[in-house]
Write a structure and sequence with these properties.
Largest sheet: 5 strands, antiparallel
Structural class: alpha+beta
Strand order of the largest sheet: 1-9-6-11-4
Distance between the termini: 50 Å
Radius of gyration: 16 Å
Protein name: Prolyl 4-hydroxylase alpha subunit Fe(2+) 2OG dioxygenase domain-containing protein
Organism: Thiohalocapsa halophila
Strand content: 35-45%
Shape: globular
Order of helices and strands: EHEEHEEEEEEEE
Number of domains: 1
């Protein structure tokens, strides 16, 4: 019996037009944060917390990045897209850091996203796997990737220098009042 054709899961790339004005101040403000600034931290692996949670207004420009991600997701989902909520966290990686394979297929997410604030050379590609297919993307500041929450992905080891800072999001239907 022949296998049905399989399509590579859709990953879309979007460039934030305000990146040049936002990324520098956002990254600089991030560097001043202490433990007390995070509302929650999770996934302590190899000496670092992979997921850093804070209030949306805590860093300059973060709300604008999240609004851009939500707008890009709504556009991708089309005219029948419900109002969206955007759950987010930061991922800060220094040299030798990586992220193991995982997905975001929890609850009722419609799309997942990652936005790159800083991405030094050799800071680790994000890799996606869908069955026999594998896609790798080299991060660049200002790049937003949208992808299905069920799509397995990981980040290769950061072999460069400097901070690789990204904002990850899960986007799903907003709660009805």
């Amino acid at each position: 019996m022949a296998k049905a054709p399989r399509q590579i899961a859709p990953i879309s790339a979007h460039w934030y037009p305000g990146a040049d004005a936002v990324n520098g101040p956002l990254a600089a403000a991030f560097e001043t944060l202490g433990e007390q600034d995070f509302t929650h931290r999770s996934h302590f692996i190899d000496g670092r917390f992979e997921n850093l949670y804070l209030n949306r207004g805590r860093l300059p420009g973060l709300a604008a990045v999240l609004d851009f991600a939500t707008g890009a997701a709504a556009e991708r989902l089309g005219p029948d897209c419900p109002a969206l909520r955007c759950g987010f966290w930061l991922n800060a990686m220094h040299a030798s850091s990586s992220t193991s394979r995982h997905d975001h297929a929890e609850n009722d997410e419609l799309l997942s996203a990652v936005y790159y604030v800083t991405a030094p050379a050799d800071s680790g590609d994000i890799c996606f796997a869908d069955g026999p297919f594998q896609t790798r993307v080299t991060p660049e500041p200002g790049l937003l990737l949208l992808f299905p929450p069920s799509l397995g992905h990981w980040v290769e080891p950061h072999q460069g220098t400097g901070l690789r800072l990204s904002v990850a999001c899960n986007l799903g239907p907003a709660a009805e009042d």
